[in-house]
């Protein structure tokens, strides 16, 4: 058993604070990873605050993990001590159902085992995430990190990156696709970069005008401030595809009206409940879809794509004791564009 420093919350209203957890020595097919960086995703906040229901405490969030293999189980052949690896939103699944067999483990029929706020396959052992100095994981649920990229800027790709890559890829975004990315936060800004790398013409839709210059610098060719009068009417029926990353409750009909006939809006943001009228879809034969992270194979494909196109997140690196302040800033949409925790700051706590 390995005593491990972490940051945890004990209830939906409590701040995150230092907390000690125990990691096991890796079994035959597991590795022990020393966490180097962990990105801060809005899904951490939704769950810390129990906005999706069913949260269990103490909760150690974190699912955008980049780290170094420091120990391997005796039958592990894929990984060696010193390898730089990534861990995303899930650490296991049933391995047998149709979804798992198709490499879409996130849709596992028995339910994927999430990296935090979940349970291991035994259904009893709670999972604790990446706001910690080390984590023990199965050899089959980790990713190879391209070391040509700065690691702190790669960490957010493990959730934000795959979550936007998967639908852009699945819906065939290519050269000259005319698309919009709604919400310029962690997911949105990586979405713009990946879509631009795929050759698309990208417009950013943001709720204020504050992020206009940033959006254009990220590669967008146009910008719409949705809070401005007439933003929705003057941009009606403009796009073939919309990637919607908004984290707060909003009116989906407004954005659907920006799609051309047969267009598609994919939701990746998970606010509840939603506002939707059937006629928004029916009158222009539109498609409304959702998408959940991506499987291990596709996540590796995304990392390799990002290495090839030099796509990384724009990050603000923080020590772990600034995490509560970071949450407040994320909630005010004041993040440019992903907070990433430098886990050295937690390691220091462990050794003092
Ligand atoms: P984030 O960094 O906080 O970005 C969300 C963005 O939504 C904000 O930057 C803001 O963009 C926009 N927004 C916030 N409040 C708004 C409001 N009231 N009206 C309009 N726009 C608003 O969050 P994130 O980490 O990118 O995550 C976004 C969402 O995706 C969250 O709900 C998260 O749980 C979910 N998520 C889903 C998956 C999946 O697999 N489907 C994976 C990861 C995360 P502007 O300032 O530009 O308007
Ligand atoms: Zn996430
Ligand atoms: Zn399965």
Which structural class matches the secondary elements?
alpha/beta
| Distinct bound molecules | NADP nicotinamide-adenine-dinucleotide phosphate, zinc ion
Q: Give the biggest beta sheet.
A: 7 strands, mixed
CA radius of gyration is: 20 Å
Proper CATH architecture of the largest domain: Alpha-Beta Complex
Query: CATH superfamily of the largest domain, called what?
Result: Medium-chain alcohol dehydrogenases, catalytic domain
Strand content: 25-35%
Terminal residue distance: 20 Å
CATH class of the largest domain: Alpha Beta
Arithmetic mean pLDDT? 97
Q: Figure out the total of helices.
A: 12
Instruction: Tell me the number of structural domains.
Output: 2
What portion of residues is helical?
25-40%
H/E element string? Answer: EEEHEEEHEEEHHEHEHEHEHEHEHEHEH
The outline comes out as globular
Low-confidence runs of at least 5 consecutive residues: none
- Count of individual beta strands: 17
Using the coordinates shown, work out and report the CATH topology of the largest domain.
Quinone Oxidoreductase, Chain A, domain 1
């Amino acid at each position: 058993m390995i005593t491990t420093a972490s940051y945890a919350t004990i209830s939906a209203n409590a701040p995150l604070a230092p907390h000690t957890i125990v990691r096991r020595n890796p079994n035959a097919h597991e590795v022990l990873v020393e966490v180097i960086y962990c990105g801060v995703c809005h899904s951490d906040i939704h769950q810390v605050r129990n906005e999706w229901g069913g949260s269990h405490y103490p909760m150690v969030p974190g699912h955008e993990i980049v780290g170094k293999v420091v120990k391997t189980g005796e039958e592990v052949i894929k990984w060696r001590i010193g390898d730089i690896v990534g861990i995303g939103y899930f650490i296991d699944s049933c391995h047998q159902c149709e979804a798992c067999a198709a490499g879409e483990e996130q849709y596992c029929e028995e339910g994927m085992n999430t990296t935090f706020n979940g349970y291991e396959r035994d259904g009893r052992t709670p999972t604790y995430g990446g706001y910690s100095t080390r984590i023990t994981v199965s050899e089959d649920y980790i990713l190879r990190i391209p070391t040509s990229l700065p690691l702190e800027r790669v960490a957010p790709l493990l959730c934000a990156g795959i979550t936007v890559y998967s639908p852009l890829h699945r819906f065939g975004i290519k050269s000259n696709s005319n698309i919009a990315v709604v919400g310029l936060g962690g997911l949105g800004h990586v979405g713009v970069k990946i879509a631009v790398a795929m050759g698309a013409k990208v417009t950013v839709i943001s709720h204020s005008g504050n992020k206009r210059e940033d959006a254009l610098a990220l590669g967008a060719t146009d910008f719409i401030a949705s809070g401005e009068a007439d933003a929705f009417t003057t941009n009606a029926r403009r796009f073939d595809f919309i990637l919607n990353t908004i984290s707060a409750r909003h009116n989906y009909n407004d954005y659907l009206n920006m799609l051309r006939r047969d267009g598609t809006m994919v939701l990746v943001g998970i606010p509840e409940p939603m506002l939707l009228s059937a006629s928004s879809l029916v009158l222009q034969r539109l498609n409304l879809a959702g998408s959940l992270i991506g499987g291990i194979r596709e996540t590796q494909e995304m990392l390799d794509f990002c290495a090839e196109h030099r796509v990384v997140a724009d990050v603000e690196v923080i020590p772990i004791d600034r995490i509560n302040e970071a949450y407040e800033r994320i909630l005010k949409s004041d993040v440019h564009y992903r907070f990433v925790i430098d886990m050295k700051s937690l390691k220091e706590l462990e050794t003092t």
